[in-house]
Amino acid sequence: MAMVMMKKSGGDKMQLSKRFQEIHERATCIYTKAEVDAALDQMAREMSVRLNNSDPIFLCVLLGGIVPLGNLLPRLDFQLEINYIHVSSYGVENKVGELSWKAEPTIDLSGRTIVVVDDILDTGTTLKAAVEYCRMKNAREVLTAVLLDKKKPRKPGGVVQADFKALSIDDRFVYGYGLDYSEYLRNVPGIYAVAPTDNVM
Length: 201
Ligand code: IMP
Ligand code: MG
Known about the structure:
Helices cover 23% and strands 29% of the residues. It is α/β, with parallel strands linked by helices. The longest helix is centred in the first third of the chain and has 19 residues, at 33-51. The chain binds inosinic acid and magnesium ion. The site of inosinic acid has 18 residues, from strand 3, strand 5, helix 4 and strand 8.
């Protein structure tokens, strides 16, 4: 008889307040930590082929890019630098808002290969702003990398496809592995989709 592996809802192992515990219990695990790790292994291999002689700068889009990039870095076995950019299109209540610039890179991007790393490609607005910033700073080449590609139409002018993506998801609100739910739950080891009643978008 074939064994069917059921994906768990959340709720176990995390120590959370009642509010987030309930949200996590109602959520559905889309990708386990093992599945995310395997996808990061694969993305790292693709990056090695494409980038190993280009002395790139990996630019972390704060805050969502921290966990994806942090987990990616030890998998990359070639010369690179890291830095950050803080541009955000979401307010604290997860509503789409104006793009807000909070921090620029502290390193000269001119003439360099840049890999902009974010947690998720959603409407494409945030990555587009980051890519345009790098071009304005005379980067030689600008590539994009995301942990998740949300399968939905992008906003006009937004980045349509990332150069590197680890995993795809349907158009649902997710948290974990760097993605937040009201600024919390970024540290959840796995990707979870919230129940429809908890949807914030
Ligand atoms: P975009 O500019 O619409 O592509 O949005 C990218 C940003 O939106 C990401 O960096 C995330 O911070 C946020 N975002 C989009 N979808 C989700 C989600 O499902 N969960 C958490 N954050 C999300
Ligand atoms: Mg983000």
